Amino acid sequence: MTSPLPGPSLLSDDPGGLIAAIPALLRFVPADSLVLITYTGAQTLGLEAVLRMDLPDPPHVPDVVDQLRMVAHNHEASVVELIILGGRRASDPATDLPHRPLVDALAESFDQGGILVAHSIWAADPHPGTPWHCYADPVCTGHIPATPPPLLTALTPSPTPTTPFADRAAFSAHLSADPPESLAHRATLLTTLPPVNPDHDFPFLRTTIDALAPPPNQTHSLTPAPTPCTPAPSPPTEAPAPPTD
Hints:
Strand order of the largest sheet: 1-3-2-4-5-6-7
Shape: elongated
């Protein structure tokens, strides 16, 4: 669901603060990832989605560009932000940021689709103190702060501060189903429970059923009652003709 932001603004004017919030928004610390943040609206921007995918190998860049352009259009995005996390460390941030061909291809694709790229940023990882650099401006750089801005903190999924999982694998393990032996044990326990008496255990349910039931003398049938057959009137009989001589 789109979350309206106060006024025509992005999640954060500080790219470092934006990167600092990504682990909390995703619920895990991403590595070697492309993160796409989409916004909808014109006068007032609304946060639409925060998407993450593995960084593609060079042969797969065109497919990824087409896929993300389709995702942005499906989300009716008017503004996007691109964050690249991982890859080799830049020897010269001004000209040698990792995955520049990917970012350039995405920026061109979004521009052709009428979507503004507000930020395109690279950092080796999202940990506090890590340097970040902008792809579009070599003097646009800084360090990731220890905590994200308050607005970003308010938009994280949990109402109370939580520690993001260390990586995607740990998050996936948390969401995976319990082991089969645990599920079988629970099923056995359920079969040993006494039968449920709705009148006693769920009085509200019984009251609702009774309230919806028709009165005792009123029944509802989907089949109309048969109409009694009325015999057709007999045709009139004629008097016999008088005998003739």
